[in-house]
Amino acid sequence: MDVRDTYLAAWNETDREARDALLVAGWSASATYTDPMASARGLDHVSDVIGAVHGQFPGLVFAPIGDVDTHHDVARFRWGLGLPGEEPAAVGADVVTLDADGRIATVVGFLDRVPG
Fold first, then answer.
1. What pLDDT was estimated at residue 115?
2. How much is the pLDDT for 77?
3. How far, CA to CA in Å, does 29 sit from each of 43, 48, 50?
4. Whose CB has fewer CB within 10 Å in the chain, the N or C terminal residue?
């Protein structure tokens, strides 16, 4: 599983326990997440942010858009949030850095399009 798959699996998991297990498996314990609307430090807070997004947009899923661009310990990719097979309601891009063990350490997110 590549970094984008690991990332999107956590973001698409609606069950808190299952999401937390994905975060523990693929993210650093001290991971940080920052986008224009949220900031989180540590896996519990990252899981809270993901849960809040599911509460705000029930039934929508994250899907990859385009390719993953990587170098060294950094990856950049785009995603869409919407109903499967339909035009995404939201589109964004994330820049992810990995720790020495290949786990997600930091995420800086950008929102290109958000629902009104």
1. 81
2. 98
3. 6, 14, 16
4. C
Give the structural domain span for 74.
Answer: 3-113
The amino acid occupying position 28 is: S
For residue 82, which of 72, 91, 93 has the smallest C-alpha distance?
Answer: 91
CATH code of the domain covering residue 12: 3.10.450.50
Least Cα distance to 33 among 10, 13, 14 occurs for 10
Question: In the chain, what are the helix, strand and coil shares in percent, each to the nearest 5?
Answer: 30, 45, 25
Reported as a pLDDT band with limits 50, 70 and 90, residue 1 is low
Distance of CA 7 to the CA centre of its chain: 5
Q: Which amino acid is at 39?
A: S
| Position 9, amino acid | A
The mean pLDDT value for 60-76 works out to 97
Would the pLDDT of 116 be above 90? no
How far, CA to CA in Å, does 106 sit from each of 9, 57, 89, 115? 16, 24, 25, 25
- Per the structure, the count of domains in the chain is 1
Query: How many angstroms from the chain centroid is the CA of residue 84?
Result: 17
